Prior knowledge:
Blueprint: H1 2-22, E1 34-38, H2 44-55, E2 59-64, H3 67-77, E3 82-86, H4 92-105, E4 110-116, H5 132-142, H6 144-160, E5 163-167, H7 180-199, E6 206-212, H8 222-234, H9 238-263, H10 269-280, E7 287-290, H11 292-303, H12 306-317, H13 327-333
Parallel strand pairs: 1-2, 1-4, 2-3, 4-5, 5-6, 6-7
Amino acid sequence: xxxxxxxxxxxxxxxxxxxxxxxxxxxxxxxxxxxxxxxxxxxxxxxxxxxxxxxxxxxxxxxxxxxxxxxxxxxxxxxxxxxxxxxxxxxxxxxxxxxxxxxxxxxxxxxxxxxxxxxxxxxxxxxxxxxxxxxxxxxxxxxxxxxxxxxxxxxxxxxxxxxxxxxxxxxxxxxxxxxxxxxxxxxxxxxxxxxxxxxxxxxxxxxxxxxxxxxxxxxxxxxxxxxxxxxxxxxxxxxxxxxxxxxxxxxxxxxxxxxxxxxxxxxxxxxxxxxxxxxxxxxxxxxxxxxxxxxxxxxxxxxxxxxxxxxxxxxxxxxxxxxxxxxxxxxxxx
Length: 334
């Protein structure tokens, strides 16, 4: 038994060392001859990745939703290798215009990579509070946006045998309550990319998925979360408001913000560096788990029995207030 465990430990160590070494091997070609398209560069991961890629020699087409975001990025980069692209991934026309712009500006460069980074945090509360339009919005940006951009630029990447890199979320493998539109859109994006990875294998195109845990980016804005909850609540029928109660609504918004900001990491380079590795390594990973919470908590939870995962999520949420209609039932069980 001891010999077997020793052999297993040695095997794991050898594997980890070998993987570390082969992941250091760079992809063929000179970075200065390559271009990458990155969506969602107004702030957060996309902005940081665009700056890193420009500094290291890539030509970068940075998709920005707002003029303010694009102007700020251009000023900070101060490089002729950066091209700001006006891009709304939820609109067919916008993606078509972006494609035309990129093809006109490429010149002698080749489009090596697509980085699908744009997304929205479409969380409003329990499903009872959520309209179909909220689901449609989350899917339109976080899932169909990935498909829309990838399909528009895929032929260029196939020609260079390059990379398609997409951020989903740990919520692309592990569902959580009160996040229906977000989770559905992220599961959908992962399903698309899993299919694409297999389809493009013989074209020598590498497809990578990033699954971050919680990070403090503009998506986790406290006021935005409260505004989403209040907006959803205002549209509810009185019967639903009575069922849940103002006390639960106010507690939910506050508790959600507190939990996320308490657990979220400020080191966004856990994500940015994984993006960059997927673009530049000869042997990128199929999946990158970004952040210690993803690696040590959420990925293992996604593999556990459902009853155990559900119990763990309830424990993390630490819900102290229940909907108004359940208060009497809770008192009787105490």
